[in-house]
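Can you give me the bound-state structure? Components:
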Amino acid sequence: MNYLLTNIQKVVSLTPQEEELLLSSFEERSVKKKDFLLKEGDISKGLIFVTEGLLRNYSLDKNGFEHVLQFVPPGWWTNDIHSYKTGLPARFFVEAMEDTDYLWIRKKNMEELFIKIPKIERFFRILAENSLVAHQARLISFLSMTAKERYMSFCEQYPSLTDCLPQKQVASYIGVTPEFLSKMLSELKTETKR
Amino acid sequence: MNYLLTNIQKVVSLTPQEEELLLSSFEERSVKKKDFLLKEGDISKGLIFVTEGLLRNYSLDKNGFEHVLQFVPPGWWTNDIHSYKTGLPARFFVEAMEDTDYLWIRKKNMEELFIKIPKIERFFRILAENSLVAHQARLISFLSMTAKERYMSFCEQYPSLTDCLPQKQVASYIGVTPEFLSKMLSELKTETKR
DNA sequence: CGTCTATTTGAATGTACTCAAAAGCGGTGG
DNA sequence: CCACCGCTTTTGAGTACATTCAAATAGACG
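Here's the bound-state model for the whole set.
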């Protein structure tokens, strides 16, 4: 639970009372590898903050292919925002890539927190804005970069993830087929050897 | 100015005093077609709310190609969020596609408003969240759709823009060359004729 | 071990790009 | 008001980047 406080206090400072109210609004939960926290068609009823493990947030297209929207390591938040905000069915899946511990807060509690502690609403405003910046950068990468450039940019941005992720998942994130990523990698290797 | 109030009151309600404070924090400004409101390398010092006309927010890649991040018709907000939040040089340009009127608020005034009227901070939290949802959808379109599908999805989503925008700009938004969009369109025409 | 999934490799294909040239269109100045 | 200039759009030929499909190999897990 302390991890959550540290995460939030980097942006806004809370009194001990506020900390207590905050923590009491969350539930500690765990899932096993390959479990789903959310499936397409479900209604997303709360927010997820990962403390241990790794999640992925992805969509399934009409041809049955998966597309990774986000990897969610400890210290990061996830859910299907659209479903959460509108109450409509989710378009994304949230699945555990490893055994994962997380904190969960129901929408109703979240809304109460915003009223009782405006600083929490500030925290989430800033969180959303930062996330927006990251999404914009990723969009620009699709508009202006080749697959190889997107791969290298991914490695720079998430060095810790690059190692522990199956290639297939990285391929899905940067928007290429696993076969093509494999070919790119063998090229990159022979390039550096020379 | 009233347009701004209408826009905000759709999400949160304000008292007459709050309305007045809000409006007094903004400046009315105008630019001519082809003028820049922000250039790469500038520091983004405030937020822009368009009341009349049309802006575009784009980046320039290392080969000199433009990539449209956002079109900004009346009722929409824009700036370079990253630069605005960090004080670092902007990566994007904001340019007027037509003579445009807009409201402008300095960062310092914005921060004061957040303190004096928490509902305004709520409005911007929700604005950022909605924008995030839109960005996610666009990301998924690059991961899962062909150029033709992205084009059709763009037309559905922004019917009013489709007509008034030069093809070249639409091409830049959906991530293809103007030549390729032109070929796609002539194909689509012959398809519907049959 | 055996099974299941991930990765590699190759050949054929397709989608989208580049470069070039011509045609169309809008704005501006004479 | 027309002619010209610059920019956008169209069209075509050749090319490159990335996909599909198939088959072989390698790894991970029970």
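A couple of observations. The beta strands of chain B are 27-31, 36-38, 46-52, 55-60, 66-72, 77-78, 93-96, 100-106. The first helix of chain B runs from residue 2 to 9.
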